[in-house]
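Dear U.,

For the methods section draft, I wanted the exact inputs and outputs in one place so we can describe them consistently. I've listed the two proteins in the order they'll appear in the manuscript figures. Please don't edit the token lines directly; just add comments below if something needs changing.

First protein:
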Amino acid sequence: MKLTIFITVLFCTVYQSTWAQAPKEEGRFTAAILAGISLSQIDGDNDASYSKVGFNGGARGGVRFGKKMELCTEILFSQKGSAINNTGEIFHLDYIEVPVLFYYKDWEAMTPKNRKYMRVMIGAGLSYSRLVNSGVFRNNVWVDPSNTPGWVDPFAKNDLMFMFDANFFFTRNWGLNVRWARSILSIIGEGNTLRDVNNPAADPLPAFTHTIVIRALYRI
């Protein structure tokens, strides 16, 4: 149900942004759709390989400030967590994410129809995330937290990250987006610790996620 609501809001956002800029060839507003994978880890899990693979995708809207500046925001469905190779344990986290980034653009190019565009966009910003689902896989078996003795969901509902972002456009419409992000706030809720329920005496895991995102981008 939550995913259905998210997709509906996403469609309406992209449609409204596209309609608003339709009368002008190169208007003040921009819109794009992005989809790809995220590679993430959690500090302190003894596995720094970014081996937790998830989906990352959604819509982007932007406002141009002159020829080379643009302020963008996105609405994303983002999967993060940690995959610990030596134990087979996977922490799985689903977020609705709203980044805000400021971009500098360069390398002007021209389409066959004589429309100008910038091939490169480099940016940085902050992102707010709201946790919508969390859980654990052990040996490829989903562990239902509500039915696991001793399990207390430790994950905070809110997350704040800073990020660096790069976009390269092969054509005016199609491009590649690469992003690196790290948590500023702990992903563990106040008063909780992230422990393995099979080894509660072990030290708690630190609580900062690192994420690398690689996505295809279609600019409308």
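Second protein (the one for the lower panel):
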Amino acid sequence: MNRIERFWSKVDKKGEEECWIWKACDDGRDGRGYGRFCVNGYMDYAHRVAYRLTHGKINEGKIIMHSCDNPKCCNPKHLIEGTDADNVYDMLRKGRYGYSGNIGEKNGRAILKREQVEKIRILYKTTKYNHRELGIMFGVERTTITGIINKKIWKD
């Protein structure tokens, strides 16, 4: 398997418009949920690798932003080249800076929908799934599942 095939084997490709989630193990992500992939002995963010594989070189001084706001997403259609200033403007425009007062699905950083949160709580009560398994199932960090179950997040 070549490097490109190895990279895409770690991405859960779904529909053309859906997020393509980086599915490598926990040590394949940084503390903020961004996927990481080793290229020529250098660890790079998975979304940047996906962008380069699809669109070519990233221009100097540019970053790769997620239009979907999902750090695990590697769908090239969701990746946009921009500046740090563009990224900050996007964050402010979407109300993702600090606490915006928006809760649940209205929060610009929310990845899950209310019905998914309810399903997580129901599945956990069955005792068939642990936090890690539910995180994998729903494409979020284990700590997010813990927060949902303990009602530290999605309190309402």
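Candidate sentences for the figure legend, describing the second protein: The chain has six helices and six strands. Residues 104-149 form one domain.

Thanks,
Y.
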